Amino acid sequence: LLSGILAEKVLHLKKGAQVMLVKNVDEMLVNGCVGRIVAFHGYREVMDTVASEGEKRAGSTKTTGFGNAAEKKSSEEASKSAHTQKEDEQFPVVEFPTAEGGKEAVLVMREEFKVEDAEGKVLARRMQVPLILAWAMSIHKSQGQTIQRV
């Protein structure tokens, strides 16, 4: 059942790897967005940095997964979700190009991928970082790219 899920069972990543999102995060970061891993950080470490820098960085750092756009959650909810992660677990910080020509750094955390039957009953699920390596792409994917990315 899990063989049809895009999220791999084991995912090996390192700094500098080109990756592609396999799940929608928000209206700008969608399935198929290509970015580059710039670092690895823990959820708590990133949230402490964003909180300490306050308004200076509002909107420039996002999280996916349990943090899911931390600016939308209260700090209490965000700290609860941080406790669900292992204290020493590291997640990739991926830099994605923006429509304005800039770059946006996103802490990409685990998301749930599930297989459901016709009635919506969950048959199988996997928790994984919604990224795959993207050193090559299909012709179909390249046809939708802008000239900068081809």
Q: Can you offer a commentary on this structure?
A:
The protein has 150 residues and is α+β, with helices and mostly antiparallel strands. Helices cover 17% and strands 29% of the residues. The strands form two sheets. The chain has a six-stranded mixed sheet with strand order 3-5-4-2-1-8, covered by helices on one side. A two-stranded antiparallel ribbon has the order 6-7. The longest helix has 11 residues, at 43-53.
Topology of this structure?
Layout: E1 18-21, E2 34-41, H1 43-53, E3 61-63, H2 75-83, E4 91-97, E5 103-107, E6 111-116, E7 122-128, E8 131-133, H3 139-143
Parallel strand pairs: 3-5
Antiparallel strand pairs: 1-2, 1-8, 2-4, 4-5, 6-7
Mean pLDDT: 75
- Largest sheet: spatial strand order: 3-5-4-2-1-8
Radius of gyration: 16 Å
The arrangement of helices and strands along the chain is EEHEHEEEEEH
Low-confidence stretches: 55-61, 66-83
Count the beta strands: 8
Task: Name its key features.
150 residues; alpha+beta; 6-stranded mixed β-sheet; 3 helices
Summarize the entry for a quick read.
This protein has three helices and eight strands. By secondary structure, it is an alpha+beta fold.
